[in-house]
Amino acid sequence: MLSQTSSSTLQVKTLLNLSHDISIASHSKVEHLLVSNFPNYVKGSRFYDVLHDLLIHGIFNVDGNLWTIQCKISSHEFNTKLLKHFISNTVNSEISNHLIPYLSKIYDKNRVINLQNVLRKFGVDNICNVAFGTDPACLDLENMHHTQSMSGLSFAKSFDDTVDICSSRFMSPLSLVWKMKRFFNIGSEKQFKQATEEII
Questions:
Q1: Which GO-annotated molecular functions does the record name (predicted)?
Q2: How many other C-beta atoms can be found within 10 angstroms of the C-beta atom of residue 5?
């Protein structure tokens, strides 16, 4: 649909205009929003409300001065070249030391695998290595029954659950629905609370 529009921009509104989304397919417009003029485009209260339980006041969930301060602090910690080098080394190490041996053992045992699940575990191991400096060893077959690996898999599931539930919050046309579920600690919001406790 985006390719059909003259402006490479599409605005979608829900019934009764309860929520709306804007999709952009133009490189120059995306650069304008995310690079050149990022501070001018606030995330807004809906974004903040949906992600606050998970991200609190972190750089991905704030605007204005708080975002500027956190951005300046983190830019000193990780300049682009240093960050790329660190991530590249981490991912390469994870591929050589865990992913390839994991797939080799599966192949040697002639077992069928769920590739999406394997790549999810690979992703969680990388995220934890980069963000927290710890490896949950989700892909370590030798430790499959040990606490470290099981806690890594539990972390991975909890992480997936929180992301899925945050996504469903965004999809809800009425924020009152998920806020009521959170207030009464029922349904997906009860699951969200349990998952965030596992992560933290």
A1: heme binding; iron ion binding; monooxygenase activity; oxidoreductase activity, acting on paired donors, with incorporation or reduction of molecular oxygen
A2: 13
Coil vs helix vs strand at 171 = helix
pLDDT digits (tens, 9 = 90+) for 152-183: 678 888 888 998 999 999 888 789 999 999 99
Measuring CA to CA, which residue among 97, 195, 93 is closest to residue 143?
Answer: 97
- Which residues does 86 contact at the CB level (< 8 Å), separation at least 6? 78, 130
Q: Is residue 55 packed enough to be buried (19+ CB in 10 Å), middle (13-18) or exposed (0-12)?
A: middle
Residue 88 structure tokens: 């590249």
Helix (H, G, I), strand (E, B), or coil: what is residue 12? strand
Gap between the terminal Cα atoms of the chain: 40
- pTM equals 0.69
148: pLDDT confidence band, cut at 50, 70 and 90? very low
Structure tokens at 35: 């690079």
Q: What is d(CA 116, CA 48) in angstroms, rounded to the nearest whole number?
A: 30
CA distance 3 to 5: 6
Residue 143: helix, strand or coil by DSSP? Answer: coil
